[in-house]
Amino acid sequence: KYYDADILYFHDDWGSQRSPFFSLRTAREMLVPYLKRIVDSAHKHGMYVDFHSCGKVEKLVPAMIDAGVDIWSGQPMNDRLAVLKEHGDKIKLNFGPAMEFGAPEDVQLKAYEEYFDTYGDYLTSLIISGFGAGPKVYEYVYKRTREALAK
Prior knowledge:
Elements (H helix, E strand, L loop, with lengths): L6 E5 L12 H7 L1 H13 L3 E5 L8 H7 L3 E3 L6 H8 L4 E2 L11 H15 L15 H16 L1
C-alpha cells in the first residue's frame, strides 16, 4: 500500500532436510488460518505471496495452496517434478539449481539452462543467491523468467 510492492516474500521454515516438522493435518489446523490472513491481505493490495520454507516439505504444499500462496520458495531436496505434476496448476515454484559456491560463470549458466529446460514452464522467479552469480547468469535468468511470466 505504501511502497507499491509487487510481492510479499514471507519466511516460515516448516521442516528439516529429511522431513516436515509436523503433519499436513497439523499445518491445516494450526497454520493455514493465520497464513491465509496474511495472504488475503497481500492479495487485497495487489501483491503476490512467495512463501519460503526450508526443509523437505513437499508433503505440505497442499496446506500452502489452501492458504492461497502463489509461489513456494523451497530447497533442492524436495521432489520438484512430483510437486509440479500434482500441484503445478495451483502454485508456482521458486527454486534454483544446486551448485557449489564459487562455481565458474559458464558452469552456473549451464546449470540454469538445464534447470529452465526442465522447470521453465512453471517458474516465475528463481533463487540466485549464495554462490556469486556472474552478469550472464542474471541476464539469462531475467530473460527466461520474463518469458515464463508472459505465458
